[in-house]
Amino acid sequence: MNFTVTRNDFYKTLQKVINVIPTKTTSEILYNVLLLAEGNQLKIIATDLEITQIAWTSCQINKEGSVIVPGKLLLDIIREMPEIDLTFEVDSNFKILIQSSLGEYKISGQGKTEYPSVPLVESDDKLSLKNSVLKRMIEKTIFACSTDNLRPALTGVYCQILDEEYRMVATDGHRLVRMITTDYSNPGFTTDIIVPTKALTFVARNLPEEGVQKIVLSENHILFELPGTKIYSRLIKEPYPDYERVIPADYNKEMIIDKTQFVSSVKRVSLFSNPMTYQVRLHLESTQLSIHAQDIDFGGEANESIPCQYNSEALDIAYNANYLADILRHIDSEKIRLMVEDSDGPGIIFPTEQEEKEDILMLIMPVRLNN
Amino acid sequence: MNKQRNKIKIHVLPDTLANKIAAGEVVERPYSVVKELVENAIDAGANRISIIIEQGGKKLIQVIDNGYGMNGEEIPLAFARHATSKIKSIQDLDQIDTLGFRGEALPSIASVAQVEIKSRPKNEHLGTVYTLNGGKDGRLKKLAANVGTSISVKNLFFNTPARRRFLKSDASEYQKIMDVLKRFFLAYPHIHFEFYVKDRQVFNLKATDLGQRVQSVLGQTIFKGLLPVNHSLGGIELSGFISRPDVIRKSRGHQFLFLNGRPIQDKSLSHAIFQGYANLIAPGEYPVYCLFLEMEPNLVDVNVHPTKMEVRFTNERSLYYFFINSVHKTLSQEGVIPEFHLGPSGGAVEKTTTEASNQPREIINELRHRHSSMARYAGAQLSLTYFSPDEESKKEKTSPEPMQEVPPTLSNPAVDLSQDHYARVDVQFWQIHNRYILSEIKSGIVVIDQHVAHERILFERISKQLQKGQQVYSQKLLFPQKITLAYDDFMIFKQIYEVLNQIGFSIKVFSGNTIVIEAMPADVKVGRESQILLDIIDYYRNEPLKDFNHLEKVAAAYACKNAIKSGEKLSQAEMQTLIDQLFACESPFFCPHGRPIIITIDLEELDRKFKRIP
Predict the structure, then answer these.
(1) pTM over 0.80
(2) CATH pick for B338-614 out of 3.30.1540.20, 3.30.559.10, 3.30.70.100, 1.10.3720.10
(3) Is B116 helix (H, G, I), strand (E, B) or coil?
């Protein structure tokens, strides 16, 4: 194998896939990337077995071939280089010689036989989504996913392809986000899948602002075809909980409040909450909301009041401040609407003004108050 | 079916035979001889006693004292049955303050060994030597002798082969003798003891005070782990030492209890001491103690058994609680922190101790934030940084550092070390093997076990919640968890579920063995709901927490199962929070099971290891 590529092209391509490399793995081979020289293209592939990403660039191929090489090492070399031409030469023992005007580097590589193969995703189930829509939906949902592997279904985002709308739902069992867009055209089928959050993070990072995103779905995988790169991910094949059932249909208590004030106040007060539970207590009155936190172990305490509009009799309700602030910062509108039934039931948070063709709903479970 | 015995008439046994029979009770093994002889020496007012043994006491036991001594007339009498100088009348039996009194020992010993006794009272110029062979052939001779008595017992059981055969190896007889001697050593620090095995001097304990004596007998290592005890209650006084809960043994070998100077064994009192440790030590573990109980002799009956190891107290019950309380009080006083020793040290070697590490509160002060008012809020601020929106989303968009490890989700609460400046952390912590937290203090290094530290924090909080009805935080679940329990699990669950509901769970029985978890204590990790319940059930079933009451047991189970595990990575801020909370605990040094949470390694210890100091 022998090819010549400019430093910038190589660096950009490698950089796209490098984060797929796991930080800790028992399978040493995954620390490598696969370099594949075919036609007039150099492909770089990285995988952690769940997610596989391929990025490519055009270059001058003198001799086709492939090699696997430690990814981070390669990146560290290239990063410190100015824009020059690099020639890679790989002999039959997979010794790699990188030549440039600066000098030369020798790295030991390996044959690609050991490297996991790229999953085959061939299907007619293709979905198109606007890049801006997809990106926004990913950003608004993945924060609510669970990081705990004990319930695998909750570690991904639940995507529903419905007749009229496309939905993404994320929850960890304590809070939930449901985002619906109608800015989409049905691809001719309906289905639902769970996509791992990590894959979506990579997708969001590689999505350009403009254009339309093509998604291919197969039985066990999802493929995002992005400019200059493809991201494959295994799907989480677990039953997703019936989230619709836990979103109450109507409420009689409603509070409207300035979002910025609310977030800042929660953050300040939560500094005084117990660092294990982060509990803050909200006291809702018709014209003002009081936020209170207390840490019994250390004797700290905080109280703040901010104006609000609330339509019912006074109510006390407590939340985990982290969950609350997480939710609030993912809402764009100036004011938010918090709806509750009682201090024991879920709180539903909406932006007062939804964006066009969009419906976003956030739900937070309270911390029960009892003395 | 029996042999024809009835032809033999009843008759009084000759003294020699009677003594031989009595010897069966009094002289069980060489150590009993040692015990009797040393007791006699002590009763004779000696302040210097030498003990010499050969072949585990089988060949020779010799005890030399500088006590009152006996004259030529007294000596043969001493070997007559029930001859004693120690009591005169039945009234004296209620006021026994000497060690021996039954007058059985010498004749019994003499009947089964070859005995030579050499003695001279102070007021006489010439001593007497008296030899006996199996209690017979007594021969008296005058000769020059030191003041005091020297008695040597040779070839024990030479005339009772059956008994001789039952003796154990030299080594194990030696052990027994050591056990007996240690009791004397500890009980009489003002007596100078010397102990020789053949020609080798094993102990040379000069007259001193109790502390020094304990140190030389039990060794430096144990001594450093002992706490002084000093309590009294209506004429009863208890003094001595008990060990910190981490200085435990797997046997009772290091438990010494003395009643008015006499070593005794008392199951009830030793149980009381164990109880005093509450749940700090596990069954099968034995604390080290050396306790002296002083009380009026007439409140206790020591004449229960010839070996006098057992006694009977008139006010046993109140004594039991007095013991529990004394031990408990001692342990709850400060000064309870385990220490780490890198190598074998101690023994009866004198060594200087460093004072610095024995100040646990100092360690606390060093490790906590120095700006105490800022203490936990600095930590909280750190943990909040993760939901500052701008930072996170910027990272996502521009991805400035390609090498940067991107958290799998945006809400990953990881706080990296680079943010330390927020916290004004002035104590640095290192996590090793994701299991121990290491930090520096003036006198050396502290090592904290992260799991048991968190366990202690949770245990205390839950206990408080249960006892004082403190605020309980209970996070409602969006998707109530339905679990069908195995029948035996369900039975345990039924026992504990009310307590679980008190500490923040909200669990309902659905039908049959199926239960629904609707809420969890707020600090349980998301997704662990059903797992933690099963863990608690298992723990409750399997852990032998005998000394815990029901509530404590549930609290311990919850604390253990919800605590940070060994192997979990902690950020600098999390470590600080953990340590701040740990030191807000009432007993931050031991986990609910009594395992140490914190150990210290002295600089001196390290210096020694590196041969910087000899």
Answers:
(1) no
(2) 3.30.1540.20
(3) strand
